[in-house]
Amino acid sequence: MQPYHHRVQYYETDMMGVTHHSNYIRWMEEARTDFMDQMGFPYTRMEAEGVRSPVRSLSCEFKRPTTFGDEVEIRVSIESFNGLRMAILYEMRDAEGEIVFAARSEHAFLNREGRIVRMRRAMPAFCEAVEAVMLQGETE
Predict the structure, then answer these.
(1) What distance, in Å, lies between the first and last C-alpha atoms of the chain?
(2) Fewer Cβ atoms within 10 A, N terminus or C terminus of the chain?
(3) pLDDT tens digits for range 63-95
(4) Residue 46 and residue 117: Cα distance in Å, rounded?
(5) Which residues are catalytic?
(6) DSSP state of 113
């Protein structure tokens, strides 16, 4: 899986000239969306098949600031998946390779009525793709 790249925009900075903390969460979503696209299961496909994946929890740690114009590389990996929930890890690095931000998000799978979806039954191909990506991550 290829990392996602984001260039810090001027409007994403605060009066101190550093990236406002709320933007890192947005970048996580950008990177997660790109990751799902690379896996072959874009959110549009999942939603067309009646599955939504809301965020259940989020934790993060700010390591170093970024500023306007900085290129941030975001690596996404799947920490765990049990068919009901998926935990995703994010590592953001600056151009020098220093970690600037690390995070974890946990997601559920719901149908249009908001009920829990068992992905092994509803979308077995998605489960196979997730497991393949996790296996690939273990061998790297």
Answers:
(1) 11
(2) C
(3) 999 999 999 999 999 999 999 999 999 999 999
(4) 12
(5) 14
(6) T
pLDDT tens track for 91-120: 999 999 999 999 999 999 999 999 999 999
- For domain 4-139, give the fold: Thiol Ester Dehydrase; Chain A (3.10.129)
Assigned token pair, 118: 């068992």
Q: Quick one: tokens of 9?
A: 């925009």
Are 120 and 106 within 8 A, CB to CB? Answer: no
How many other C-beta atoms can be found within 10 angstroms of the C-beta atom of residue 122?
A: 16
The C-alpha angle with vertex 91 and arms to 2 and 67, in degrees rounded to 5, equals 100
Cα(32)–Cα(4) distance, integer angstroms: 9
How far, in whole angstroms, is CA 82 from its chain's centroid? 17
Q: Which helix (H) or strand (E) is 34 found in, with range?
A: helix 22-39
Q: Whole-model pTM above 0.90?
A: yes
